[in-house]
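note to self — DONT lose this again. spent like an hour looking for the file last time. sequence + predicted structure for the chain T wanted, 92 res
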Amino acid sequence: MDSQPARSDFGNYGAASPLAAAAAFGDEGQPRYCPTDLLGGFALLMAGHGRCVHIDVMLGDPAYARWQLACARELDDGELAAVTERLAAYFA
């Protein structure tokens, strides 16, 4: 009998971009947990526009998360817009 717990591959989407991570995550029913790969990609894309996003605060404060998503919607960036829309389901 193996005493080691079963290993799982949570969060390792092998994705080259935040959009690929979102596509790999899928749409099985109501979302429960925000994929950290997608959230990290969002923060990096926002940083590219000079905006600092605190990932821990987004996870703990839905109002802050919605505000950051609203700010992202105002930027002219197609990839950021797509990631923003995926994240919106987790902070509704």
